[in-house]
Design brief:
153 residues, alpha+beta, Trna Endonuclease, Chain: A, domain 1, globular
């Protein structure tokens, strides 16, 4: 009887476990799923916003060991690494306030990896942040060019 109960619990955990990603199991959660959905919607809104400004998108969700960059675009000759932040309101702060020093350093590390992988080490580059708020319809988009600088980036 006890073995059946253990198998039942283990089976339940396996059903809740999603696909393993980079060696780590991900678990299904309505909060996480909703946040992921909000992020994807924000990235889509930000991408269209940048396209309307005549940016050319060259990469979406670029990933490496150092992390991820939401969008990489060209603004004329300048390569732009774009961090997109989405919120339903300002209770947890504005989207732009959430890009703290630690996040800036992570984005810079991923950007260096992107430049190195593509042989673009001497390319002029900058870091933009796009905040998308979904507490109004249509969503409110705020774009900050050259939002931060990173020494050595």
């Amino acid at each position: 009887m006890r073995g059946d109960k253990v198998r039942e619990i283990a089976g339940g955990l396996q059903r809740r476990a999603a696909v393993a990603t980079q060696g780590r199991a991900r678990y299904s959660s309505s909060t996480v799923d909703a946040r992921g959905e909000l992020g994807r919607k924000g990235e889509a809104v930000a991408e269209q916003f940048l396209r309307d400004l005549r940016y050319r998108i060259v990469a979406r969700n670029f990933r490496c060991r150092a992390g991820e960059i939401d969008l990489v675009a060209l603004d004329g000759p300048v390569l732009v690494f774009v961090e997109v932040r989405s919120r339903r309101g300002e209770r947890a702060g504005t989207p732009l306030e959430s890009v703290d020093a630690r996040k800036q350093q992570q984005v810079a590390r991923v950007a260096r990896h992107f430049l190195s992988m593509r042989g673009l080490g001497e390319r002029e580059a900058r870091f933009d942040v796009v905040g998308v708020r979904f507490d109004q319809e249509p969503p409110v988009v705020e774009h900050v060019q050259s939002a931060f600088e990173v020494a050595g980036a």
